Amino acid sequence: MSSEPLLGTPGTSSSPSPTLAKRKAILTTVVVPILLLAGIIFVAIKGEGIPKDDLGKARYYLKSSPVLDGHVDLPIAMREIYGNNLSAFDLNGPLPGHYDTSRARKGHLGGFFWAIFTECREEEEGADFMIPSVTVRDTLEQIDLSVNLIEKYSSDYALCRTADDVMAAIRAGKIASLLGMEGAHMLGNSLGVLRTYYDLGVRYLTLTHSCNNAFADSAGIFGDVEERWGGLSPLGRELVKEMNRLGIIVDLSHVSDKTALQALSITRAPVMWSHSCARHFNDMQRNIPDEVLDKVGKGKGKVDGVVMVNFYNNFALPKDQAPFANVSTIADHIEYIADRIGRHHVGIGSDYDGVEVTPAGLEDVSKYPNLFAELIKRGWNQRDLSLLAGGNLLRIMRGVEDVSKKLRKHESPNMAKYDKRHDLDGHKIDF
Ligand SMILES: *[C@@H]1O[C@H](CO)[C@@H](O)[C@H](O)[C@H]1NC(C)=O
Ligand SMILES: *[C@@H]1O[C@H](CO)[C@@H](O)[C@H](O)[C@H]1NC(C)=O
């Protein structure tokens, strides 16, 4: 603590008068110690305010560092239940799924990525994915639904495009609302469509859903998918580069191992898994193998990233054990990933409203504190929990924003085109 500003008020002489010097001495010998003591007492009292039980502690920590969830399927649930009719339901609740505002508030949810999702329909898209049919329309409808809900309930929600927006929304007591797009099949094979989605607010793109698409191979969900490109297609490589330039996070949930490894080797910006489990506990392609996890981190050959852990029973555990998934199961995934690649690389990606069953103790968005309590029991401290809750995601977002700012200075919009498309060949009118 410095007393200089008090003494250096405008208009007074630069060399303090004897009286001023005396006052300064009183300040440093009497006032400063009193203030320090008051500070210590304040901290002690405040410290006593921290609850002793794990759940109380979890709620206390989450008040200052609320959960930022990487994947909530609210928009597609509202499409399927209410046909996207905003007047037909009240977002404050009660709603039939895992999400509504009242439960989100109870669960200390500070923000989330609204999953913009339409089913991939590989059969209807044709052998070369050349018939995206109604997918782009349906995707736009899901964006429209999301931004209109955020607007309609603007006393509780704010549409966010940057990490700073997220911080500002939380400070204003709102649920920070980001748009994440679950599958490049929604691009209609077009980087121009990607750029338009960016302008509408989309800030992550999962390279695939459960089907292969024109850009990349998928891991499938329960059945494995036969590989088409051997990872990324040539256009998929251009897609990753263009996402880096635009500032859209490369999301590697749902993709095949080869797609993940190739994307990690070419991305110039941090990456995320918006909702994925570790394959260590359940050997299915949809989960992340150690080989891929080991590419995440700091240092040579590694990429900064955040693995936001999925709560879905059937990803977390093999089929015979899945019905018994509980809070401990999900904590196991978080700890396994954190032990392997560090607590700076984990987050929460519940998949709420996108799955039919959820673990005991994590039934819906009101239950996040149970998971934090379980980790407190296992020795996690406030700093690590705040990284898990949202700090790591914000770091990745900032990293992606910084790379984009740099790349935009010398890279132009990517004009790469799907080689199967001839409608954009030009030379159709000869003036
Ligand atoms: C939307 O929902 C409201 C309230 O249930 C209903 O009155 C209205 O008819 C619905 N609109 C359409 C187009 O279905
Ligand atoms: C989760 O289930 C396991 C065994 O099925 C049990 O040992 C553990 O205590 C449970 N955890 C919680 C938090 O209920």
TrEMBL record:
One of its GO terms (biological process) is proteolysis. This is Dipeptidase. Its EC number is 3.4.13.19. It holds the Pfam family Peptidase_M19. Keywords: Dipeptidase, Hydrolase, Membrane, Metal-binding, Metalloprotease, Protease, Transmembrane, Transmembrane helix, Zinc. The chain crosses the membrane at residues 25-45. It comes from Tremella mesenterica (Jelly fungus). The lineage of its organism: Eukaryota, Fungi, Dikarya, Basidiomycota, Agaricomycotina. PANTHER family: DIPEPTIDASE, MICROSOMAL DIPEPTIDASE. It is an enzyme of class 3 (hydrolase).
